[in-house]
Specification:
It is a single chain. This protein has helices spanning 38-48, 76-97, 100-112, 120-159, 163-171, 176-188, 191-202, 211-235, 257-276, 281-301, 307-330, and strands at residues 6-8, 16-19, 26-31, 54-60, 65-70. The chain is an alpha+beta fold. A 5-stranded antiparallel sheet has the order 1-2-3-5-4. A hairpin with a 7-residue loop joins strand 1 (6-8) and strand 2.
Length: 340
């Protein structure tokens, strides 16, 4: 690795200085105003976390450095200008949030980088709250649409008594080979198996230094399982008995535990993977949706659930999944790497 040296970015106003390294897609930046400013550090991290071209990063308020690992197709100046835009946005929002006397102190700390802004926490709190409200609102729109569609589908299927006709139609697909395939797929969605797997994953080395994510994954699995058991007891719906079952099942049918627990655990795991590997996000989500849909269909194929059981399980699981994701995002830790 070559000797690092400072490089001035165009139109930077001395706010951001890039320190070259010989590794493509990796660079350190000296950020004036970051020194001893935890609020600016957290704001930088929250904004960089949203950028798909940023793979990993770390901001250090003791040295004023930001270490960034980014997609190699982007240049050093592109990342530097991105950081500069975030700093400008932070400064503008800080100026609007503080009285005139506080703004003067903020500007002094931001440009000089030597004084600590005593109003950092208040500024960050206001900015973060507004951003969180905006993000939550945008996330809830498609989620509420999906939940609403599942509720409507469940209601229509039940109102027109289509459950039995759909199962009898699916029965025509039965063959010995398909039976074995569906048994394998349904095993992947078994609530007990998935609960033990999620708890094992949560305490595995994969979640080292990610205890918050591990804790919420465990809560997601346990919560989904308990909620499903409670709903089964509450509704007490009998399982279909249109043909002899080739697997052992419990008494209650509504909602499907396989559908509900699988969408929670597989959905939450895929969300974490997509955040870690954004370049593979499309494939991660696509394969997860395919697996969850296959698990639901396997319950219909085996004749142990009505279609309304499966759609209701998906709806209830989706609500719990979003609650867990929002809980994670409200207290999330940025992707961390050691800062040099």
């Amino acid at each position: 690795m070559g000797t690092p040296h400072f490089h001035k970015l165009p139109n930077q106003n001395h706010w951001v200085q890039a320190i070259h390294t010989a590794v493509k897609g990796r660079a350190r930046y000296k950020v004036n105003g970051l020194y001893h400013s935890e609020a600016l550090k957290r704001y930088l991290e929250s904004r960089l976390l949203e950028e798909e071209i940023i793979l990993r990063f770390s901001a250090n308020s003791y040295t004023g450095n930001v270490l960034v690992i980014f997609h190699p197709d982007n240049s050093l100046n592109t990342i530097g200008l991105l950081i500069q835009d975030i700093l400008l946005d932070y400064r503008q929002k800080s100026s609007k949030s503080l009285p005139s006397t506080a703004v003067t102190k903020e500007n002094t700390a931001f440009v000089g980088g030597n004084n600590r802004n005593i109003s950092d926490s208040a500024v960050l709190s206001q900015i973060s709250m507004q951003r969180q409200l905006n993000q939550t609102g945008s996330q809830l729109i498609p989620v509420l649409g999906a939940v609403g569609a599942l509720v409507c589908a469940t209601g229509l299927l039940y109102a027109y008594n289509l459950d039995e006709a759909i199962l009898l139609l699916i029965q025509r697909l039965h063959t010995p080979l398909r039976d074995r395939i569906m048994l394998s797929i349904t095993f992947m969605g078994d609530p007990v198996v998935m609960l033990l797997s999620s708890l094992g994953l949560a305490i595995s080395p994969l979640f080292y230094n990610r205890r918050r994510q591990a804790a919420i994954l465990g809560i997601a699995g346990v919560g989904a399982t308990l909620l499903n058991c409670l709903m089964k007891l509450l509704f007490g719906r009998a399982r279909p008995a249109l043909w002899k079952h080739i697997i052992k099942v419990g008494q209650h049918s509504f909602p499907s535990g396989h559908a509900m627990v699988s969408i929670v655990i597989y959905g939450f795991t895929s969300y974490l993977l997509a955040k870690q590997f954004p370049e593979w996000r499309f494939w991660i989500y696509g394969l997860t949706i395919l697996l969850i849909a296959a698990i639901g269909f396997s319950r219909l194929y085996l004749g142990v659930h009505w279609l309304t059981d499966v759609t209701a399980g998906y709806g209830a699981g989706l609500v719990w999944l979003i609650a867990c994701i929002l809980s994670l995002e409200a207290t999330r830790n940025p992707r961390a790497i050691p800062c040099e």
